[in-house]
Amino acid sequence: MDIDELNTGVLLFDSELLKIQELNPAAQKILGWDLSSLNDNINDLGALSQGLAALAKLIRSLKSDELREEIKQSKSKRIEIKINSQHFNLYLQQLEDDYMLELSQIIYQDMKQSTHELKRPIQNIKTLVETLLLGAKDDAVKSLEYLEKLDHEADRLGTMVQDMLSLSHVLSGSVELNKIEIDLGQLVDKLISSAESRATSRQIKLMSDIPKGTKIQADKKYLDHLLANLIDNGIKYNKDSGSVQLHYKEGVLIVEDTGTGIPETDIAKVFDQFYRVQASSAIQGTGLGLAIVKAIVDLHGWTIAIESELKTGSRFSIRLS
Ligand code: ADP
Asked: 248 forms bridges with which residues in the sheet?
């Protein structure tokens, strides 16, 4: 195993738990300290930041015979700790001659909000099934109508769970970007043609003036996700016969549409998880798309800005530097 390639933070200790022998880049990122500074300060709680002090305290307690016996018995021990206001699962394992400590971040998304959002389609499904059972099932027209509604609610639930998983993944802190040279013009053309059927059904034109051969550095998978989301929103929140246009100029990638626009007071909030503009509540969505877009932008070290005018359109600009 090459611990340098793991996304999880890994620390290897000696058999006495006195010295850290190895520290992978993910652990260094989580703790903010390199190997030699950690070893120099691990017993000096006063010199350590709050997060590291929690780890140092833990390491001290690991030296207790009781705990070591417990680890020996069960081979691994899980402890939850907080480092720099983030929660981590810490697994301690005894290897042949030393100890391995693994740190993986726990994402506590706004659980209350998430479960509340999931409750709605679940409640709708329950009501539809109950209505069917109460008699609608005996009416061929009504039962077809209710089954179609059930199908729609199940799709909504599926999209929501998928978006929640995508968001918690990009926020996990364990994503390692695979930045490569990408032909932006080619990628945008491909995304436009896969969104085409959704746009043409409402006579919305999808256009790009980004020439093939325009090279940028990005992680293809995440850039794909980001652009697909922005193009999709450009279609969803557009008027019939409108347009979505993509441009790239001097390091700035632009997705602009001729849609409903976003009220000024909502612009800062649309990147929040589950936030949806009141006026667009009739249009299907989870309120997570732009939170995912923002997380991908942050992962790359880019910035994103929105300019928007009601009933005229919106422009999303991403500075790729
Ligand atoms: P949703 O799943 O609701 O589309 P998003 O996070 O992608 O979630 O967007 C959040 C909200 O921002 C949307 O509900 C919508 O009100 C508004 N919004 C996003 N993109 C646009 C756009 N291009 N034009 C107008 N409003 C938009």
From this structure: 253
Asked whether residue 43 carries a pLDDT value surpassing 70, the answer given is: no
* Atom of ligand 1 minimally distant from the CA of 238: 24
* pLDDT tens-digit series, residues 208-260: 999 999 999 999 999 999 999 999 999 999 999 999 999 999 999 999 999 99
Token code pair at residue 276: 């949806």
Amino acid at 177: L
Residues 6 or more apart whose CB falls under 8 angstroms from that of 207 comprise 192, 243, 244, 245, 246
Pocket test for ligand 1, best of 117, 157, 280, 293 (most atoms within 8 A of CB): 280
CA 9, chain centre distance (Å): 19
Ligand 1 centroid vs 283 CA: distance in angstroms? 9
Q: Whose CA is nearest to atom 11 of ligand 1?
A: 276
Task: State which fold the 179-319 domain adopts.
Answer: Heat Shock Protein 90 (3.30.565)
pLDDT tens profile 264-290: 989 988 998 888 998 888 898 999 999
Check if the beta carbon of residue 223 is closer than 8 Å to that of residue 187.
Answer: yes
Mean pLDDT of 174-197: 94
The response to whether residue 38 sits with its C-beta less than 6 Å from ligand 1 reads no
Give the pLDDT confidence of 101-129 residue by residue, as tens digits: 888 776 655 667 778 888 889 999 999 99
In CATH, the architecture of 3-105 is 2-Layer Sandwich (3.30)
Distance between CA atoms of 8 and 31, rounded to whole angstroms? Answer: 12
